[in-house]
Structure formats: C-alpha cells, structure tokens
Amino acid sequence: MSEIESGAMKKATELLTAAEMRAIETAAMDSGAVSGIELMERAGAAVVAAVEEGWPQLARGAFRVVVLCGPGNNGGDGFVIARLLRERGCEVELYLLGEAVGLPRDAQANCDRWREMGAVQPWPAKLDGQADLYVDAVFGAGLSRPVGERVVAPLAGVPPERIVAVDAPTGLCMDSGRVLGSAVSAAVTVTFHAPRPGHYLADGPAHCGRVICSSIGLRGEGPRRAVRVDAPLVPVLKSADGHKYSHGHALVLSGGSGRTGAARLTARGALRIGAGLVTLGVPGAAQLEVAAQSTGVMLTRVDGPEAFSKVLEDERINALCLGPGLGRDRARSLVPVALEAGTRRAVVLDADALSAFADAPDALFARLHPGCVLTPHGGEFARLFPDPAKQLAEEPARGPALSRLDVARAAAERAGCTVLLKGPDTVIARPDGMCAVNAARYARSVPWLATAGAGDVLAGFIAGLMARGADAFGAAATAAWLHVECALQFGPGLIAEDLPESLPAVLRQLDQAAGRIRAGSAAEESSTPLQ
Ligand SMILES: NC(=O)C1=CN([C@@H]2O[C@H](COP(=O)(O)OP(=O)(O)OC[C@H]3O[C@@H](n4cnc5c(N)ncnc54)[C@H](O)[C@@H]3O)[C@@H](O)[C@H]2O)[C@@H](O)CC1
Ligand SMILES: Nc1ncnc2c1ncn2[C@@H]1O[C@H](COP(=O)(O)OP(=O)(O)O)[C@@H](O)[C@H]1O
Ligand SMILES: [K+]
Known about the structure:
InterPro entries: Carbohydrate_kinase_pred_CS, CARKD, Nnr, Ribokinase-like, YjeF_N_dom, YjeF_N_dom_sf. (6S)-NADPHX binds at residues 73-77, 140-146, 167, 262, 325, 377, 456. This protein is of the alpha/beta class. The protein is 40% helix and 15% strand. It contains 19 helices and 18 strands. Strands 1-9-18-17-16-15-14-13-10-11-12 form an 11-stranded mixed sheet, with helices on both faces. Helix 17 crosses helix 18 (472-490). The chain is elongated and about 85 Å long. The two termini are 37 Å apart. The structure holds ligand NAX, adenosine-5'-diphosphate and potassium ion (K). Adenosine-5'-diphosphate (ADP) binds at residues 351, 377, 422-424, 426, 440, 446-447, 449-450, 452-456, 458, 483.
C-alpha cells in the first residue's frame, strides 16, 4: 500500500462521491456519534461562517439576504442558515421550492424553527437582484435529474458575486462536475467534510467560484477511490548517496529527420526530473540533426525493430517512452518490441504510439502491463476507447452523471495499465479503480499550458520518474502535478521548452519545504532532553 492510500502523509485529499459521503454520514448517525439534525446545524453554521468571512459588511448591519430552499436536506441546511443569519441581525427572506409537507424529517424540523421567526414564501418566478447575498440551498448531493428553468430562474439575474452555494451550485452534479440541465454560478461554494470530484472536474470550477470545505465533525474516511493530488506522491528529490545508474536509464524513441523536436522535449523532461541517463533512439537519417541539438541527452541509432531489440539488450535501460513525433508506422513496428520485457521495463505511450493502434486497440491492450502508462488527450482517448468517450460526450439524462473518473477507470481496466487522461482536470486511473485528479483549477489555473509540446514534456517527466523506480500510477500523478507547478512557476508566455527549465525552481521549493520539515522535527527531538 502506498503512502497516499495509507493516508500517512498529506500528499493528496480524498474526493468523495455523494454516495460515499452519504455512507459516512449514515455510519456516524447509526453509531450514535451524531444525529442528522446536529449535522444539519453544523452544515448551516459552516456556511454562515464562510459568509461572515466573505461578506464582512454583514457585521456592519442592514444586510439583506435571500435564502432559496429546495425540497430535500440541502433545503434543510437553508432553513438553518436563514435562522442563524436572522439571529445575527440580517434581514432574511426565504423561498421554498415545492411544499413544506413533503420535506424530509430534519429539514421539516428546521423549517418549523424558521417559521417561528419568518415566513416561508412560495417559489418566485424571478428576484430583483438587490439583496446583499443569495443563498443557494436548492439542490446539493441529491441532484438526480436535470434542473428545469423554473428552478434556476430566480437566480438568473443575480450576479454570481452575491451567491453562496450550499454543498454545490444547484444543477451541478457533484460526482462529475457536469451540469444537469442548467446550473447556478456562485462566488463561494461551501461543502462539508471532504471535497467532491465535481468541485474539480469538467464544468465544476466554472460554477463553484471558491470552494470552502468545512469540517462538520465527521470522522470517517471513504474508500479512497479518488484523490486530488496536492504534492508529489513519489520521491522526486535525490538522496545523498547513489550514482547515475542508480537513478535509471530512460530511452526515448524519436521520429525521422525534421520530426525530432517532440522527442527531444520528452528527453529533456526525463533528464530534468532526474533520470540518471537519458538516451534518444533516432533513425540514422535524423542522427546529425539530433546530435547538433543534444548535450546531456545521449544518442543511439534505432532504425527499426531489430536495432531496437539490440539496444534493449542493455538491461540498465529500464524506462521507455514512445510516441511524441514518432510517426504512426514507426510506432506500429516499435511499440510491440518495447512491451516485450513485460513489467521489467516501464513503458510510457503517448501521441502517435496511441493513435497508431486506433484501428486495433485490443492488439495493443493485450500487450500492455501494469508498468505501462498511456497519456492520451481527449482525441487520442476517443480513438482508443470510443465507447466510454461517446458516453461521456452525451448529454447526461440523470444524476449522478458519468464522470471523467468513470471513463478513465474503465479505460485503465480495459487496457490493464495506468491511463492519464489530459486536460485542465487531468485524471490518472489505475486498473484497480484508484484515481487521482490533478486539477489545474482555481489558484492552480494555468491556461498557458495549452501549448504545443507541453504533453511531450509530461510524457518525459513520467518516463524519468519511472526510470528512477516510481510505480506507474505514482509517477503519472506526480508528473502531472509537477507539470502544472512548472507552468505556475513560469507564468504566461510559457512554451513547452520552458517546462523542463522551470523544474529546478519547483524542485528547489520542494527541497526547502522538506528541509523545513526536517529542521522542525530535529528541533522537536533536540528539545525533548532539555525539558
Ligand atoms: N445527509 C446528511 O445528514 C447531511 C446532508 N446535508 C445536506 O443534504 C444535502 C443532500 O440532501 P438530499 O439527499 O436530501 O438531496 P437534495 O436536497 O440535494 O435533493 C433533494 C431531492 O430533490 C429531488 N430532486 C433531485 N433532482 C431534482 C430536480 N432536478 N428537480 C426536482 N427535484 C429533484 C430528489 O428526489 C432529491 O432527493 C447535501 O447536499 C447537504 O447540503 C448536510 O446537512 C450535512 C448532513
Ligand atoms: N487549459 C489548460 N489548463 C491546464 N493544462 C492544460 C490546459 N490545456 C491543456 N493542458 C495540458 O497541456 C498538455 C497538452 O498536451 P497535449 O494535448 O498532448 O499537447 P502536445 O501533444 O502538443 O504536447 C497536457 O498535459 C494537458 O493536461
Ligand atoms: K445548493
């Protein structure tokens, strides 16, 4: 079990589906640790705390709030929020979608408490947009079908800066981040206990504004089937001992003359991330071109499968990367050779090495093993896994909607190896269903990473980490995280060449952070005998 699964270090944050969250709540309630009404009170209080922080004018008085409550427990939270804000002196109006008689028990109880201080008004066709704050407590985790116009109409004219969403902006599926029908856009979304995939995937970030995850006193953990990557999951800093061969030897296969740039980017990425040696395997016709452009990266001639097999007799070559600029014909002849050694040799397949098998993906899948990583972008993914890609492209008819996690999982299971599905919400899936999300969202947003060659560098980062001994899933998730950190480090104007060159600064920051942790624990240890 890796560290991220044992939860030993804070490298990742678990993302809970609505069903997993419900199971945790139910277990806590069944154990007698907490009641549903207590959880609802804490959820409401957490939203009010977020409002006090985000809207400091509330403390100055004359603050007008509109609370929109739905027919379930999300609406129940709304009644609590309305009461707590009224107790703080706000002027509160509350509207209910549907009838109070059908409310679930805890929501009903809070509706009754609210009625002691204010009216429950029928659902409005529209609102004036003049209040200081609008609370969206219409639908949350229970969203099960597309939201109709009537539901979102009251908030349609309200600027998102005045909207706080409870658990999720209404209309957003929390498991997938996909909009069911139409969805509210909020300034702040307050969720409870743990974030959900939908806060990071697909349309989620565009609708959530800022996500605040508040503790409501629940202790349980989910099955850890999906995590958000918050730091490297595998070691990236080198230890004091060791020599170049102990950090592995990565071989990147290049295409022919005039098409070697992509593989050179990949090789540079693998070298920067710390592979002990990196060699480019080039056809004879491209040898001079590559030699003129390479210094730290070595060169060997690989014309066809026989030459490739010969090069691979060197067992110290422990990680391969094929695809960037390779050409489909060359990919079809070289990929089977790369996979011959089975799990003894890590293999990263990207770009042409994926598209080359679009007509016969099963022939590729039959050869793949757990030491492989496939790194498709959306188009390459659709070529190799047409069915899940088609399902994901369809308008969702009900919630929870199919997510990028679901399709990446299905792909990893089918391929029998780790699959990294690229995007601003990159998903990394392992065949056993474990998933990681590397979200280039919110403060980590890096739209300038959408530049030619960025993916080639990512493939190199993965191959380099695998040469150094990392497992496929850990290497892919860590590389994706570092890739975005490099883009953040460089900033707008970035081109693919800048990514490997930004890595040293990112690694230095990690080294400094690790040093601070080491210094902290040393200080603690040394202080003990003095006490
Ligand atoms: N279960 C608990 O103990 C807690 C739940 N909490 C809140 O409860 C929420 C989940 O509550 P629910 O499971 O009742 O779900 P919701 O309140 O999100 O939805 C309620 C019901 O609305 C109906 N519905 C779904 N989509 C619809 C649509 N498009 N049009 C019309 N009706 C639709 C469904 O029948 C669903 O059961 C969370 O999001 C959170 O805000 C919090 O109070 C924390 C504790
Ligand atoms: N808007 C975006 N925000 C953050 N990252 C992005 C965005 N668009 C693309 N990326 C990332 O940039 C890389 C592009 O890779 P890819 O599509 O293979 O391009 P190329 O083949 O030109 O290198 C991927 O790692 C992807 O996750
Ligand atoms: K909501």
